[in-house]
Design brief:
The chain is an alpha/beta fold. It is built from 10 helices and 11 strands. The chain has 2 domains: 126 residues, Rossmann fold (3-Layer(aba) Sandwich); 120 residues, Rossmann fold (3-Layer(aba) Sandwich), CATH 3.40.50.10090. It is 34% helix and 20% strand. Strand 9, helix 8 and strand 10 form a beta-alpha-beta unit. The two termini are 31 Å apart.
Length: 256
Amino acid sequence: MSVSMPADASTRPSARPLRGRTIVTTRERPGVLDSRLARAGADVVHVPLIETADPVDGGRELGEVLDHIASFDWVVVTSPVGAERVMPSVCGHDVRIATVGTRTAEVATRLTGRAVDVVPTRQLAVELVAAMPNAGDTPRLLLAVADRADPATATALADRGYDVTLVTAYRTLLRAPTAPQRRAALAADAVVFASGSAAASWVDAIGTDAPPTVVSIGPSTTAVATERGLQVTATATDHSIDGLVAQVIHTLVPPP
């Protein structure tokens, strides 16, 4: 599916540096990344390679943990999907919130009606750990993650002195592309990966073939892509959606 934007004064050619470029995104649903790329002039080809589902137990463990949300001092979510599944239970409770990424923070704020307490400036789990305040008297912390999440974040938070409860909020499943989607993806100018699971899913679904330009949102995503056999052209220095789009522009558009 392609995403296009109206050609008005705000989208004149000088403001659309990616005009004429085709960029592949792979998230479950078109979202902010797609719209930002389209606003920059790109023809966005959305090829969803992942979909989210309940944990294997149907969410039983998550539900049991959320029933006792008031017993935690902190709730940490690492993705918008995690925020959607956890934050409604936080409403009305005196629990502090931390997120990885500004988009995750936006979802958390929308669902709880209050600001997030900790959002690292860079969209990296290691930055979240560093940004957390000193633990003090071993506060209880709920870390809600995807089933494929690296356990290093939980370990690092425990090393900081937090009493960590790790719970799976959702599963990430592979979604095979259709033959036309595969052809469109490989014919594009670039593909962007906003997570390590997206890069891994590309290899699982399509292989190590890719458009000539591969842009990653950050070093952890680049590491996964490289380990799976993809050649990453550029890694965003600002590990956010805006930073990813800026890196795509910097990589594809030659300086004047």
